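Dear Dr. H.,

I hope your travels went smoothly. While you were away I took the liberty of generating a structure for the chain from your last submission, since the lab meeting agenda had it listed for discussion. I wanted you to have the full record in hand beforehand rather than looking at slides cold. The sequence, exactly as received, is reproduced here:
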Amino acid sequence: MRRKRTPAKPTPQYFSPRHEFKIYAAIRASIALPPGPKIAWEALADLFYPDSGSVTYSYEELARDIGLKRDQAKRHVKVLQRAGLLAIKTRFQYNRQIENEFFFVCRDLQEIRTGDLGLPRRSQGGLRQSRADHTPSDSPASEG
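The corresponding predicted structure, in token form, is as follows:
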């Protein structure tokens, strides 16, 4: 029996955020990204090193730069990574993470603006289902 071949994932194309003002505007106008990841993306873009093609930064430094705690900054970066806007290479020394190297990934501007980034939609007020949509037949207590 033959196995089906899965198509190879395309390798991401990295770019320099310097002088890419359309990308900045698309990130700010994105309806899929919350404000925190937008701020984290812009902070990393401001620190871009043209010689290396990336940003080498720790989560502590990023958190200090944007005025948040380390865990919050890390969460915002993970959202950007899931959205396909950042690629991350983690560096370790003596079995301890010391810094991260961030690469900016090319995405279509229209995908960024319209929110077609593959992120789950945020619900209103954090509720999964509104009370109006909830009927007694949906509850487990009414079964039986």
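Two observations you may find useful: The CA atoms of residues 94 and 100 lie 15 Å apart. The first helix runs from residue 21 to 29.

With kind regards,
E. W.
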